[in-house]
Specification:
ten-stranded mixed beta sheet; single chain; 21% helix; 261 residues; Alpha-Beta Plaits; alpha+beta
Length: 261
């Protein structure tokens, strides 16, 4: 039986998704919960590995098991063994052809910038803080438009990236301001290591007026990480959703955890 999980988590206390020697990873906690629930060790396959401190609203992962339980029983059972900052949204028995990573059509990330002189308080672990200038979201959007398409994103690729190719396809980027918050949503077929956080750092340089909109093209053409903007912290980064073919009937719409006005 192949079991699909939709997972939400607060990444603050974890060293990313992927299991390491330390158990303080999301994958590690999930595998512990599965073992406690059914006394079976399984291998989990994830749609996209998130880095240390990054959050997720609907991460997808699957595993195979010999344990036969109802979907609702899996949901309640696993959640009862998980810490408060990790939750299963839903459980679905899925066809053998499905693979959480390789069946994915695209991924959507959101980065939230708190653009205010006052350091954030209640949302301090869920936003990236920028206070030096009032950011012009229209300039940021115009610069972001130049990143849409299939391109070589070496300039936004951090060291230790394991991707075989720096060529990725960004389908869409939206930059929206809601009072003191700037939301940057990026949808792509896949991402390089730290790609979103590095893109945000460059868009901020444009939004602050330090760089012209056309500078983004110079950065892209350089293929040099040193020319791009600084990497923004993981606190403000959320994996919103993974998109699959409609035949899998995965229509879950996660509710964003922050009230942003």
């Amino acid at each position: 039986m192949k079991v699909l999980l939709s997972i939400q988590y607060d990444g603050k206390n974890y060293y990313g998704w992927q299991e390491q020697k330390t158990p303080d990873t999301v994958q590690g906690k999930l595998q512990e919960a599965i073992y406690k629930f059914c006394q079976e060790k399984v291998k989990i396959y994830v749609a996209g590995r998130t880095d240390s401190g990054v959050h997720a609203l609907s991460q997808y992962a699957h595993f195979e098991t010999n344990t036969k339980r109802e979907e609702s029983t899996w949901l309640l059972g696993l959640n009862s063994h998980l810490p408060d900052d990790i939750r299963i949204n839903f459980v679905k028995f899925i066809s053998d052809e499905f693979h959480a990573r390789f069946s994915a059509l695209s991924r959507t990330y959101r980065y939230i910038i708190y653009n205010n002189k006052i350091k954030p308080c209640l949302n301090r672990n869920k936003v990236g803080w920028y206070y030096l200038h009032h950011l012009d979201e229209n300039k940021m959007q115009n610069a972001a438009n130049k990143l849409v398409g299939e391109k070589d994103f070496s300039c936004f690729r951090s060291a230790h990236c394991q991707s075989k190719s720096p060529i990725k396809k960004i389908n869409d980027i939206m930059v929206i301001r809601k009072k003191n918050f700037i939301l940057i949503d990026i949808n792509a077929n896949s991402f390089l290591y730290n790609m979103v956080r590095n893109i945000v750092g460059s868009l901020v340089l444009v939004g602050s007026g330090e760089k012209e909109i056309s500078w983004i093209e110079t950065v892209l053409n350089s293929k040099d990480r040193k020319i791009a903007g600084k990497q923004f912290p993981p606190d403000g980064l959320f994996l919103l959703n993974i998109e699959y073919d409609s035949k899998y009937n995965l229509n879950y719409e996660p509710c964003f955890p922050l009230v942003i006005e």
